[in-house]
Input
Amino acid sequence: MAVAAVIGAQWGDEGKGKIVDFLAGKADVVVRFNGGDNAGHTVMFGGKKFKMHALPSGCFHEKKQVVVGAGCAVNPKTLLEELGMLAKAGIRPNLLIDARAHVVLPYHLALDGAQEALKGSGAVGTTRRGIGPCYADKAARIGLRFADLLDKGRLEAKVRALHEIKAKELGKVYGAEFAQSEAQVFSELSGQADRLAGFVCDAILSVNESISKGKNVLLEGAQGSLLGIDSGFYPYCTSSNPTSGGASTGAGIAPSKITEVVGVLKAYVSRVGEGPLPTELPDGVGEAIRDKGNEFGTTTGRPRRIGWLDLPCLRQASEINGFTSLAFTRLDTLGGIPGLRICSAYKLGGKTLHRPPASSEALSDCKPVCEEIAGWEDLSPGEWRAVAGKGVGALPAQARAYVERVSSDLGVPASIVSVGPGREDTIIIKDVFAQ
Ligand code: IMP
Output
């Protein structure tokens, strides 16, 4: 039995969807524990590309139980659209939605846009999916939970109370009119509730029962540690905890039950939205990596900002999460990139830092100390697949050295190396679900 958490070690978009989809093969239960449709996972299945946002990535394995955990903030519209998309492809996920998960409402979407517009040049660059306003209502204890969808009388009363507050807030504070009437919001939610009610349950109970029975459980994080509300660079972060601590609270299981924490890291860094990115490459090299890696947001289509691998940030992510192994992705994308570099420290005010400072402002002032690293050749997708088939020893020597360098710096072994988008492009060094 193992309970493995898969955590983004950077600013999201590390390729967690692929790693989760791969590991889900051996898991009995996959629990998404944070965020909502601000996330974007691209999963290749049956030769087709699926862009997923709200459903756990493990839902492509129909026999697995997939769970939207208590820590999530989910837009029911997106959930239903994704279920519909999968149904068209003949996939019917075995889904549970924790009754405690929060519902992203139309007010949250409107507020996300209005708040970003008001912030002007200080905007966070959110995905505008209403995530921040939904978690704000959760913390203020006025949010609507999936449990509320099960009782129409309660739902109507909650919508009435929320409409009163939110429509006023939008109009009076932000000067934005909320187009939908209270009746329209209720009617839409009521229809969604009818379609989703069968999935809503006490998933915390169910997941803990599975653990007691010795089943393999995979905890799927969205976003990345550096975007965490507590672990990331505030305010340029999301509103949930995409960490192993968040996995515990968001899935509703004790920290001591988590046996493996897999940190997923891309061979370079990327970020969408605003905020400091010390190793950012504004020049042609960044563009070359972006184009080669098709680094455009799955949710918003925005071009991702690209930078060299950042060891100071990774060291902190590793400590905060307690990574027990690392999953490297996108080594294929760096193939043939000239002048490869890795950031090993920062310079700030005459001092050398080996960990990032606590504030975004100070991080913006950090100058990266970069070392040149020997690059490796640009192989074709077929050649990378052949490498994956042969195992880690078949990696180009410099790519292997890159993996070893990062692993030894963090003091964490590599368990997975991914060299392409498909399940067949994956090298397993250590099976996290091995007994
Ligand atoms: P929010 O989560 O939509 O509020 O956005 C807050 C910040 O997190 C913004 O910089 C977003 O671009 C970023 N973000 C949210 N979700 C993801 C993700 O899945 N991948 C990468 N960045 C994300």
